[in-house]
Design goal:
Distance between the termini: 67 Å
Helix content: 25-40%
Shape: globular
Largest sheet: 7 strands, mixed
Oligomer: single chain
Strand content: 25-35%
Radius of gyration: 24 Å
Length: 462
């Protein structure tokens, strides 16, 4: 047992930010405790990243089986998929629990509230436990945004409920065409659900350039997904069999009928309510975020915040990265955050990935660049896998050839983007990438060929 009066580091939240912070803190020799109100692993492990990717993978495999055998039953396959998903979640959560235990981290169950700058109250089942700490890392994550016009309940779901449906819905309307809406909408479409996506902007997957989104939209259409852009949901009327959703599009009110509605319009940081920030004088921004310095330190010097409750994209790997910086800062190390290369991935079909600056961003910032592209359609490995759609785009400084950013749409984009993130992190040039020997036949050769094309363009400009 840990003497709670001598805790060096208290971590609130055990998601990919919290549990990594606790592990790193313990590895650096600090007595560490982590508080979790739900299941260890947080949202990502239990009701977010991991279960969604398990179901997406199963949907892809179901589609492949159905191409060979039209008699494959979607209902039974979906039931198996839910079982597989839960097995993956259980194994991942168990792995996190094991890592914390073997590192000597004390796991405290309950709802944490800051009482003062060095004390937290932990409530569980009506009982209270108080713990004193020298430093704290807040890693409380985020939750789905609820629309006033479409409150959660009944047939109106957040991503949490959408990952746990026991049966395939006959129809689904998705409000919000961002990465969560596209991923889950396409997953259900592959199992046979009639899916309609309503997106308020001009395209689904806003933030990605149109040429990258185009192959995903084509596949969504092939999967039977109806996409309606510039559409704003107004109201939903539920009944025993489904719901009727009213929305505005081009100054015209329209309706769509579905068995369920899934609202995916973003996430809200978990800084309100019972965390007790007011007890330590810690303010939040208008968006509910907590401002930090380059070491994730707040205005209260021994309190650190990481992940979705800080500025920047709400990504699990960003939280894990910040977790290490915060723990090392507490240990007196000179670690600071450097966000030059945070990859963003969408697990659509085909996959989308981006890191660093886009071509559009470079133009807006007045940075002269060279763009090298290469297609999966001429890659031997992609052809052998029947996965030809997509391309790699590399953006490099026109004068030096240093890689400024890269985007991929295509098979295994989520894996391939790491090479390009490393290139940006190391200040590599497109010539470095082009001269790196890539094994043949592999998907990675598309990166090499895109770099070669950028090198040729540079020589022409010079």
């Amino acid at each position: 047992m840990i003497d709670h009066k001598s805790i060096d580091t208290l971590v609130i939240g055990s998601g990919p930010g919290g549990y990594v912070a606790a592990l790193r803190s313990a590895q650096l020799g600090m007595t560490t405790a982590v508080v979790e109100r739900g299941r260890v692993g947080g949202v990502c492990t239990n009701i977010g990243c991991i279960p969604s990717k398990a179901l997406i993978g199963e949907a892809h495999r179901f589609k492949q089986r159905k191409q060979w055998n039209q008699a494959v039953a979607a209902a039974a396959s979906f039931e198996d998929a839910q079982g597989f998903k839960q097995a993956v979640v259980n194994k991942q959560a168990g792995g996190v629990q094991y890592l914390l235990k073997t590192a000597g981290v004390s796991v405290l169950e309950g709802e944490a509230r800051l009482i003062d700058e060095h004390t937290a109250s932990i409530q569980q089942a009506g009982a209270e436990q108080r713990i004193s700490f020298k430093h704290a890392i807040l890693a409380t994550g985020s939750r789905p945004i609820e629309l006033a016009a479409l409150p959660y309940g009944g047939r109106i779901m957040s991503s949490t409920e959408a990952l746990s449906l026991p049966q395939i819905p006959s129809s689904l309307v998705v409000i919000g065409g961002g990465y969560i809406g596209v991923e889950l909408g396409q997953m259900y479409a592959k199992f046979g659900t009639k899916v309609t996506i309503l997106e308020g902007g001009g395209q689904v997957l806003p933030g990605f350039e149109a040429d990258l989104v185009a192959p995903v939209v084509r596949q969504l259409n092939e999967d039977g997904v109806t996409i309606i852009t510039e559409a704003i949901a107004v109201h939903a009327e539920q009944d025993a069999d489904g719901l009727t959703l009213r929305y505005m599009c081009q100054d015209e009110q329209r309706t769509v009928r579905a068995e369920y509605a899934l609202v995916t319009v973003g996430r809200r940081p978990n800084t309100d309510g019972g965390l007790g920030l007011e007890n330590i004088g810690l303010q939040t921004t208008g968006r509910g975020l907590i401002e930090t310095d380059a070491q994730c330190r707040t205005a209260v010097p021994h309190i650190f915040t990481i992940g979705d409750i800080t500025e920047g994209p709400a990504l699990a790997h960003k939280a894990s990265y910040e977790a290490k910086v915060a723990a090392e800062a507490i240990a007196g190390k000179p670690s600071i955050v450097d966000y030059r290369a945070i990859p963003l991935v969408v697990f659509s079909e085909p996959e989308l990935a981006s890191v660093g600056l886009t071509e559009t961003a470079c133009k807006e910032q007045g940075i002269p660049v060279i763009v090298g592209k290469s297609s999966f359609s001429i890659n031997g490995r992609a052809l052998a896998l029947k996965e030809e759609p997509g391309f790699v785009k590399i953006i490099a400084d026109q004068a030096s050839g240093i890689v400024k950013g890269a985007q991929i749409v295509g098979i295994e984009a989520s894996t391939l983007i790491s090479e390009l993130a490393l290139a940006i992190e190391m200040g590599a040039t497109v010539e470095d990438l082009a001269m790196t020997i890539h094994p043949h036949p592999t998907l990675g050769e598309v990166i090499m060929e895109a770099a070669e094309n950028a090198v040729r363009k540079m020589r022409i400009v010079k």
